[in-house]
Design brief:
mainly alpha, 342 residues, 2 strands
Length: 342
């Protein structure tokens, strides 16, 4: 077994054992995997392709609602379930709950992927800050629209079916759903970035006009990349719906100020355009967030703002870029001594 295979085997074993070794931190670890997923998917367009989106939270919120509609709609009319005036108590059995989860999570991912594929040509006509602002507007508009759709619960949101599991076991299940999705995403991206597809989206990032001149169908690659990332974000959103039990459109689903910003900060902290950068950044940011939110309540947003300033001013390439500069040998980069001295 090579050193790399041993390293990944240890990480996989640690991932499986974590909720049993640290049962009190299961929810913390589940949220960590959520951050890793959204950071990796944001980097697909923002880091690997050079299109910085501020609206990926649209797919997260849409995934929550799509997962809920599928899970509820299998057994009840959705409008009847979300009707605040109903007096009848609607419940699902254990088998119905898990069937809703089994179909709702991947169904939400596919729905979000389809949404991204359909609206991609519209938004990829924009570039630079216009694309970022356009996607942000999409997320904000979606939250406002959904909050006015009574069939989806309106501003009050949706309450999910209750899990038949004990809360402690439910936390473990949610953890493994996030972790499983995160591992699959990481392995998939490790393969994808090594293919011609990965080279194509990197070419778009470096110089889109030259990429088009070389015969690369840039719009197709951009749309597919956004759609792939939307599939995984949508699935993560559906898992969050089952985790939270009740969610609202503005404060929970389409939370542009919170998770919408956090996923970008995770990537900037770890390093854009790298496979491990979003993972490392998500871990560091989640720890930073928990410490400041728990011990500096009231000043947590100031701390977050200072962190962003430090990253932008001193670590523009993120932690991975900084380490690659000072320790290139860690990344298999050989530097000639004369060149290093110069």
């Amino acid at each position: 077994m090579s050193r790399n295979h041993l390293f990944y085997a240890v990480l996989l074993a640690a991932t499986i054992a974590a909720p049993f070794l640290f049962p009190s931190y299961t929810a913390f670890l589940a949220t960590l995997w959520l951050f890793i997923i959204v950071a990796l998917t944001w980097d697909m367009t923002g880091g690997q392709m050079g299109y910085n989106s501020l609206g990926n939270i649209f797919f997260y919120g849409t995934g929550m609602y799509a997962g809920a509609v599928i899970a509820i709609g299998l057994y009840f009319p959705v409008g009847e379930w979300t009707d605040a005036s109903r007096t009848e108590v609607l419940t699902v059995t254990g088998g119905q709950y898990y069937m809703g989860m089994l179909l709702g999570i991947p169904g939400a991912g596919l729905f979000c992927g389809l949404c991204a594929y359909l609206i991609g040509p519209l938004f990829f006509g924009l570039r630079g800050p216009y694309f970022a602002i356009g996607t942000l507007g999409l997320a904000i508009a979606a939250g406002e629209i959904v909050s006015n759709i009574e069939w989806l619960g309106g501003g009050q949101g949706i309450s999910m079916p209750h899990s038949p599991l004990h809360p402690d076991f439910e936390k473990v299940l949610i953890y493994f759903l996030y972790a499983g999705l995160g591992v699959v995403l990481f392995v998939f991206l490790k393969w994808l970035y090594s293919t011609r597809f990965g080279a194509a989206i990197n070419a778009i990032r470096d110089d889109e006009e030259k990429a088009e001149a070389m015969g690369i169908h840039t719009l197709r690659y951009k749309t597919l990349t956004w759609a792939i990332s939307a599939v995984f974000v949508g699935m993560a959103g559906a898992i969050s719906a089952f985790q939270l039990i009740h969610f609202e459109p503005l404060e929970t689903a389409y939370q542009t100020i919170n998770l919408g910003i956090f996923m970008v900060v995770c990537v900037l902290l770890g390093g854009k355009g790298t496979l491990w950068g979003p993972v490392v950044g998500a871990i560091l940011f989640h720890v930073f967030k928990e410490v400041t939110w728990n011990y500096f309540l009231g000043g947590q947003w100031v701390a977050l703002g200072l962190l962003i300033v430090v990253i932008v001013v001193f670590f523009q390439d993120g932690l991975m870029g900084y380490l690659k500069h000072i320790r290139p040998d860690w990344f298999g980069i050989r530097v000639d001594e004369k060149e290093a001295d110069a």
